[in-house]
């Protein structure tokens, strides 16, 4: 028997899992930012990474989290 469309219960379950994934990404983003902020790291490499983290990586993670909502 062929299926056309989708099983509604399975789609709802998938939606719940995607939302949970979004929350996990937001949580990880926050935890990683706190870890980076509390790490004693000085110098040009530290400055470059912190700049990339706050400027690009945080935004990328937020974008993925929003896409999963």
Please tell me about this protein's structure:
With 69 residues, the chain is mainly alpha-helical. The chain has one domain (13-68). 81% of the residues lie in helices and 0% in strands. The chain contains two helices and no strands. It has helices at residues 8-38, 44-68. 0% of the residues are buried. The mean pLDDT is 96.
Mean of the pLDDT scores? 96
Number of domains: 1
Count of separate DSSP helical elements: 2
- Please bin the fraction of helical residues: over 70%
Structural class: mainly alpha
Low-confidence stretches: none
Rg, please? Answer: 18 Å
Overall shape: it is elongated
The description of the largest β-sheet is: none
Q: Could you tell me the strand content as a percent range?
A: under 5%
Assembly classification = single chain
Measure the end-to-end span.
32 Å
List the helices and strands in order: HH
| Total strands | 0
């Amino acid at each position: 028997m062929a299926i056309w469309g989708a099983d509604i219960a399975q789609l709802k379950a998938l939606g719940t899992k995607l939302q949970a994934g979004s929350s996990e990404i937001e949580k990880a983003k926050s935890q990683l930012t706190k870890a980076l902020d509390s790490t004693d790291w000085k110098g040009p490499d530290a400055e470059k990474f912190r700049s990339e983290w706050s400027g690009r990586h945080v935004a990328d993670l937020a974008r993925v989290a929003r896409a999963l909502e």
